Amino acid sequence: MTLSATLAADVAMQDPLCSVVRGLAAASVRAQRCLTGAPRCDGCAETARCDYAALIGAREADGDAARPWWLDGVPGAATAAKGARWRVSLTTVDRGAPRTSSLAAGVASALERVGLSGAARHVVAEGLAGPYVWPDGDAAALRVASVSPWLVRLEGDDGMARSEARCPDAPWLALLAGSIVRRCDALARAYGDGSMGPLRLPDLRGVRCVEGGWAPWRGSRFSHAQQRRMPLEGFAGDAVLAGDGVAAVGPLLRAGAALGAGRLRALGFGSLAVSAVG
Question: Can you tell me whether residue 194 is helix, strand or coil?
């Protein structure tokens, strides 16, 4: 599903907008597809055959969980100004037509409730296999920007030391590349056709950050399942990368732009934009 529209009014929420949209969509899907009306999926006898549980209700796993759908294009900020243009996409790798249709309808309803409307189209991914081929694969420089914060547990001194060794000029890139590798591998295991082998991190030592950068990000969201605010941490930013290693890491970053990276992808976090520079 893709939707391009302009906000009709200023929007101000207590939670990141991507989390708000996901919550509203989940409520819509629950109303349509939940079999019992139970407040939680944990312990429900109908979980195995319930469309709501398959799409949304089962407890989010830690790490790079391989949900069968994800949102892109909804900002991670809690506010947005009237006239802002959003291009939102819902991607699914689940071919259960009734339940994915209800998910698309739920997302469209959620976007309307925050002030967006427009013609929407639902798209089912045809497969998850490599290699990825891009028309500008030989670009000398790439811009990598976070559309919404990429969530990852911030590593301690030892983890950052390893990242600095892998990419001295942009340690955050080593963390991001590793997160994309885990995301691709998890999706391929869960929904792929078996043709895609494990990915490997490219050599990042020759990559240079020539403009901007990414920095640690912290926020929170309210969890209705746990009835409390949950801390969020990760990275956000906008950077231009150049150097000898860009050609090697480019396809991996493009995969991250298509599939996202990090935790809570179904909520819209970890949405990346990658483009050629020059």
Answer: coil
The answer to whether the beta carbons of residues 213 and 170 sit under 8 Å apart is yes
For 261-276, b where at least 16 C-beta lie within 10 A, e where not — what string?
A: bbbbbbbbbbbbebeb
- Identify the bridge partners of residue 221 per DSSP, sorted by sequence position: 230
**So what's the pLDDT on residue 194?**
75
Domains and CATH numbers, the chain: 2-124 (no CATH), 141-276 (3.30.70.1900)
Query: Consecutive sets of 10 residues in the chain, 278 residues long: mean pLDDT of each?
Result: 80 91 88 86 84 72 61 89 86 70 85 73 44 55 94 69 90 93 86 78 94 94 82 94 92 89 87 90
pLDDT at 50: 87
Q: Which of 172, 257, 154 is nearest to 209 (CA)?
A: 172
Question: Tokens for 127?
Answer: 């497969």
Q: Coil, strand, or helix at residue 181? A: helix
User: Which residues, in sequence order, are CB contacts of 156 under 8 Å at separation 6+?
Assistant: none
DSSP string, 87-156: EEEEEE----HHHHHHHHHHHHHHHHHTT-----B-EE-----S----TTTT-SEEEEEESSPEE-PPP-
User: Which of 28, 84, 27, 18 lies closest to 232, judged by CA?
Assistant: 18
Longest dimension (CA), the chain: 57
d(CA 113, CA 43): 31
